[in-house]
Design a protein that fits this description.
single chain; mainly beta; Jelly Rolls; Immunoglobulin-like; 6 domains; six-stranded antiparallel β-sheet; 65 strands; 2% helix; disordered C terminus
Length: 781
């Protein structure tokens, strides 16, 4: 049965006069008796006062949950009085459950109930724990102290389901990926994000194409062109006062009584154009709205007394004619009857037509809503799961990999870079570098420990330039200690090994070699028995005691002097904290200890720590590596931190590979190898760890920018869990014809046929026809 544990965030009393709170920010910690809420009843005998603990956040309880019970964990104490009762209340009048005769120690009370998820939602902030403090018949004041309280919501889920989401092929991501547990009628949303926005997306549900139900979400932007975007493009007839609209928006118009007008027998207009440079050239226009603020001078609307606006594209009207309705200033709105393209925008103007009495436009605003690229950043597919479901996603119809163009008169070599816990420039992947040139690689680590630096498998750690000027090792158990620390490779933390062993200590040593002054930051989690079990960080170059702690009735302390420690904490928190040392140049050490007293344990009962960063107090912490006079291909690998990794090595002949050479990957990573044969007619074969994987190659055919045919192959690995050595062979087709001559079979690789007196080589696909009447031949593929 799943359980969600909740704590209150607020309190409420029927009488604030008789409520006292000490250190309210932490009053719900049942391990700390110095923080509490107190209700004090000194009123008439047999009177009752209440305190409510509320603010339980039920958002983590899944939709559709059926609540079976509530378990209250309460620590309190009382003095005097007649009775103390606890209730679960919805509001101040509806009891969900109750318990009498509260204990003075940490005690749990379980209330059986039947509540739906909708009930929890409806409870909201009204739901809480009510504690009653009732005074007896004698004149003795009644007290009740609350040190900690929490509710466990015990629930079941109806009809569990399983949804499996798999990215079959293509570049992009799906979320969630893998197996997701859902429940009957629960909505499941699959989000698909193609790397290339133009890629199509195919989704099948249990083998059925459901792509038509995808909902496309684009990057939509709305741009309101400012006053500076409005310019005049000339006045056909009338006054230059039309320029008053320039530099002013409809929302912030020009204030003037001057008018534009035409002669009595004609109609004139001013044409305003706009600057659309803020809208990307690849934008897809979704909506256009033009607002004009102005008036007419005559209350009559006719061809003579006109004051109206129309949108034009070139010499063609693309909107309805909209009149200013009165002599008072007002806003009118125009929209195109057909949506223009991005290229059409530059040819759009707003014309303001006037007759004899005229009118005036005081300000103009042009609002464009558009999406970029194809209008699609990702696809979201939402549906109701009614059965166990398998979803398979294919992103895009892949095209052949086309390498960057190279000067055919020059020689190039592959430079392949891969890294873990670092970014590089050039970035991870393969580049083709011209022979004889120099290339400098910059490595920016996100973890402080340099674990591996290789060039074609050779250690180059000593050849790296820059860096933080520091390295470190860990002595997991110091001499004399009964216990040490072990590395958890999945988290990177070193974890004390004396969990549950009273009067014991785990001691490790962080050894530092620093060539320049650095700040060393250690992240730690000390989730232990508060006031008794210590996480201890020694001062720089100071040896600490290797035994457990000295305990007393109310606390404990290190057996050696606390002056040996930079930090000594008795905390009970799962939250990571940090401690920073300033380490001068040279060789140094820091002793790290987890000490336990002679009884008890809480939380994880351990200390976990790792080196979070090493930063020089001046300069950069980036590394550099320089290749000069490049004359061969290079595979560079950089690994930082304590991690597990696997090598993937690719090599080939008759082709170019991307990536080419050795790379490093974390467990669970995916790998993609692009193979470009030198001759598009080549037969390509592949082995992985000595086993043929030719059947797993994906052949992709297409055209380059010049329309020439191109071919590439793709080989993939998913969820990497071992090292791989991949060998690719690309060569010409090997098909021979064997003809019996003088009783012996002779192999021929070419066949010619005389056509119109000329010998013409025949394609191998036509050899059967050429020899259709010859019995003494064998074709071997």
């Amino acid at each position: 049965m799943p359980t969600i544990r909740l704590t209150p965030s607020t309190y409420y009393s029927t009488s604030t006069t008789y409520l006292q709170v000490t250190n309210a920010s932490n009053m719900y910690d049942d391990t700390d008796s110095t923080n509490y809420a107190q209700i004090y009843n000194s009123r008439t005998s047999t009177t009752s006062y209440y305190i409510y603990l509320r603010g339980f956040n039920f958002s983590d309880v899944p939709a559709n949950a059926n609540v079976s019970s509530f378990t209250i964990k309460l620590k309190g104490n009382y003095s005097g009085g007649y009775s103390q009762n606890m209730y679960l209340y919805n509001g101040t009048s509806t009891s969900v459950g109750s318990a009498d005769s509260l204990s003075t120690t940490v005690t749990t009370y379980t209330f059986t109930c039947s509540a739906s998820w909708e009930d929890l939602v409806s409870y909201g902030s009204n739901f809480g724990i009510r504690i009653n403090c009732r005074r007896g018949s004698r004149n003795t004041a009644a007290y009740y102290y609350i040190y900690g309280a929490e509710i466990e919501v015990n629930y079941t889920m109806p009809d569990p389901r399983t949804v499996t989401s798999v990215l079959v092929s293509g570049d992009g991501t799906i979320s969630p990926s893998g197996t997701t547990n859902t429940y009957k009628d629960e909505e499941f949303t699959l989000t698909i994000t193609p790397t290339n926005k133009s890629d199509e997306v195919l989704v099948t549900q249990d083998g059925v194409d459901v792509s038509g139900d995808l909902v496309a979400h684009g990057t939509r932007n709305t741009v309101t062109l400012t006053a500076n975007n409005v310019t005049t493009s000339g006045i056909q007839s009338g006054s230059s006062y039309a320029q008053y609209a320039v530099g002013h928006t409809a929302e912030d118009p020009y204030s003037s009584s001057n008018n534009m007008y035409a002669s009595q027998s004609s109609t004139g207009y001013a044409a305003y154009s706009f600057d659309f440079s803020d809208i990307p050239s690849n934008a897809t226009i979704e909506n256009v709205e033009v607002r004009a603020y102005g008036h007419r001078e005559s209350s009559t609307i006719s061809s003579t007394y006109v004051s109206q606006c129309v949108l034009y594209q070139g010499s063609t009207a693309i909107s309805e004619e909209v009149d200013f309705p009165s002599t008072s200033n007002s806003m009118i709105t125009l929209t195109p009857t057909n949506m223009p393209t991005r290229s059409d925008l530059s040819n759009i103007t707003l014309r303001h037509y006037v007759g004899y009495y005229g009118g005036l436009v005081l300000g103009i605003s042009f609002e464009v809503t558009y999406s970029t690229g194809t209008g699609v950043d990702h696809y979201t597919y939402t549906f109701t799961v009614v059965n166990n479901t398998v979803l398979e996603v294919t992103i895009g119809a892949e095209t052949p990999y086309i390498p960057p163009e190279e000067d055919p008169t020059k020689t190039y070599y592959s430079l392949t870079i891969s890294s873990i816990n670092a970014s590089t420039s050039p970035a991870n992947g393969t580049e083709r570098i011209e022979a004889g040139t120099t290339q400098t690689i910059t490595i920016s680590p996100t973890e402080p420990k340099l674990t591996l630096a290789l060039d074609n498998g050779v250690d180059i750690s000593s050849q790296l330039g820059g860096g933080p000027g520091a390295s470190y090792t860990v002595t997991e158990k110091v001499s004399g200690a009964a216990y040490g620390f072990e590395l958890n490779e999945s988290t990177g933390y070193y974890v004390s090994t004396n969990t549950g062993v009273n009067k014991s200590a785990s001691v490790a040593r962080l050894n530092l070699t620093v060539t320049t002054e650095c700040l060393v930051t250690i992240e730690y989690i000390n989730y232990a028995e508060a006031n008794y079990d210590y996480g201890l960080f020694g001062k720089l170059d100071t040896t600490v005691a290797t035994d457990g702690l000295t305990a007393s009735s109310s606390s404990s302390s290190p057996s050696d002097s606390t002056s040996n420690y930079q930090l000594a904490m008795c905390s009970n928190s799962a939250s990571p904290q940090t401690i920073t040392y300033t380490v001068p140049a040279g060789n140094h050490y820091i002793d790290i200890k987890y000490g336990k007293d002679d009884s008890g344990a809480s939380g994880n009962d351990n200390l976990q720590w790792k080196v979070l960063s090493i930063e020089p107090t001046s300069g950069s912490s980036d590394y550099t590596y320089t290749l000069t006079n490049i004359g061969q291909k290079h595979s560079l690998i950089f690994v930082f931190g304590d991690v597990q990794y696997y090598f993937i090595t690719s090599s080939g002949s008759g082709c170019r590979l991307f990536p080419d050479g050795q790379q490093v990957f974390l467990p669970g990573d995916n790998y993609k190898l692009n193979i470009v044969p030198n001759d598009i007619s080549s037969v390509v074969t592949a082995t992985d760890n000595g086993t043929s994987v030719t059947s797993s190659l994906e052949k992709l055919e297409g055209e380059d920018k010049q329309g020439n045919p191109v071919v590439s192959y793709t080989y993939r690995l998913s969820n990497i869990s071992a090292a791989h050595t991949i060998v690719i062979q690309a060569g010409t087709s090997s098909i021979n014809i064997y003809i019996k001559t003088n009783g012996s079979w002779v192999a021929y690789s070419k066949v010619y046929k005389k056509i119109s007196g000329q010998w013409v080589e025949q394609p191998s696909t036509d050899w059967d026809t050429v020899f259709s009447t010859t019995a003494n031949y064998v074709k071997e593929n």
